[in-house]
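Self-study notes.
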Amino acid sequence: MTATIDSPRSGKNSSGKISPQYRRTGASRGNFEMFAWLFMRLSGVVLVVLIFGHLFVNLLVGEGIHAIDFGFVAGKWADPFWQIWDLAMLWLAMLHGTNGVRTIINDYAEKDSTRLWLKIVLYAATTVIIVLGTLVIFTFNPCPVVDGVPLPGGFCPA
């Protein structure tokens, strides 16, 4: 009795069935995966700088964690530098995480339709969070006035 072993790249597993990753249809996406891989490395390095800068300013400078309140955020976001800093952190973190989850979906979702719907939900959630986060950063008003009456806060000028 002779046993034959399939070539490792033949797409067949030990039971003779074709592995799911070899059944997928669709043309090659060119260099997209290479750019996605490169984006993960570069955005990870930039995120480390952004996050440690964020933590340093919020937790170590001044009174530390005891100073963080609505007024602290309002004062920080009054400066365009910190708006751009937080915006970059939001966008990079969301896109970095989305790319990672996209990779996980590609690795573990076997059916094309499942993969499609999971990615639709992922991209929709990412878009909503990025749009809402961007709106919050740029439209934040620490001293809102409703119907001509300033809302109480104790930190807004009268």
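Second protein, same conventions, sequence then structure:
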Amino acid sequence: MSARSLRHYEDEGLIVPSRFSNGFRDYCQSTIDRVLVIRSLLESGLPVRLISQALPRPTDGSDAGTDAVCAEFLHEVQSYRDRLAARIAVLSDQRAALDAYLRKARRTDRRTGP
């Protein structure tokens, strides 16, 4: 995990690391666990905007709240998944139409070829 990514998560309010007396960030185990959840959600295709709106907010660096997934967040994830499935269906239909066009064009080309 890059420092830049961690700072971005902090800027988005996704994590709240505690600080040492010298100002350095201290990433406790619960914050590290939360970062792993965030990375997993990002890799699943969820945008940071949705994650930051729906994931329970941490209050400090000691309790990141990764164990308690609220029902609202699950609803948002399901809704995002449903929109994604609808887009996939549209793309699949478009691919099928292009495949049909190419098959027809190839048959026509063979009949009129050299």
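Instructor comment on the second fold: The radius of gyration is 23 Å.
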